[in-house]
Design a protein that fits this description.
The protein is mainly beta. The longest helix has 11 residues. About 10% of the residues lie in helices and about 55% in strands. The protein contains one helix and six strands, in the order E-E-E-E-E-E-H. It has a six-stranded antiparallel β-barrel with strand order 1-2-3-6-5-4.
């Protein structure tokens, strides 16, 4: 659980700041009161667990629940980290 981890994200020209409840290489669950629809695209920026830098990824809402949304990343986070280590 990452309930103290803040995330900023944007969709349709509106920026939000909420909290991560869970994250994996393929997606995350965001605690939010904002209203989203399944399929809605998001751009997300958050600190990568176990790393000292922030990462920005894109994804889509795949699940909407009363207390938040499930997001599937367009590219696995681990792949992005592997690429950044090769470049840096």
């Amino acid at each position: 659980m990452l309930s103290s981890t803040s995330i900023t994200y944007a969709t349709r020209g509106i920026a939000y700041e909420d909290f991560l409840l869970d994250i994996s290489a393929g997606g995350m669950f965001i605690e939010t009161r904002a209203v989203f629809t399944v399929g809605q695209p998001l751009t997300l920026t958050f600190p990568m667990p176990g790393h000292q830098h922030f990462i920005t990824v894109t994804g889509r809402v795949v699940r909407v629940e009363g207390h938040g949304v499930g997001v599937q990343f367009d590219e696995a986070v681990q792949d992005l980290l592997d690429d950044s280590h090769e470049i840096g």
